[in-house]
Amino acid sequence: MVELPEPSSAADQLAHRVIGAAIQVHRVLGPGLLESLYEEALSVEFEHLGIPHQRQVSIPATYRNRVIGRFRCDLVADGRVLVEIKAATGIANVHVAQVITYLKLLNLELGLLLNFNRPTLAQGIRRVIPGSSGVSPSPAWRL
Q1: Residue 3 has pLDDT above 90, yes or no
Q2: If residue 38 lies in a helix (H) or strand (E), which one and from where to where?
């Protein structure tokens, strides 16, 4: 088994705050809405909790040192934790690959893939770190 590098304790602590905020949003709104609505609500919750963040962060894709296009990730919390929001029947490998790509392009150490289309948000949380497979072997989140 390949040992994956763990993110800093500051990034992990921030991730726990982000997860708490997302759980609060899910408790109020429940599953079944559009991703954009969860993003907006999570941004409001971040503001309420004093979590600095950016929305719809533009990520340049380069090839041979030329920008060939741009991606947009949903949220970056405090310049440390990438937050990608889904409202899907499940998290697919392509969703994890997307987060890994964003983490590498932004040079971030931790990503959270949050699927709000679950009965409880805890069932829809994936902690993603860059590495051999990108997915942390630990539980989705730890308290």
Answers
A1: no
A2: helix 35-49
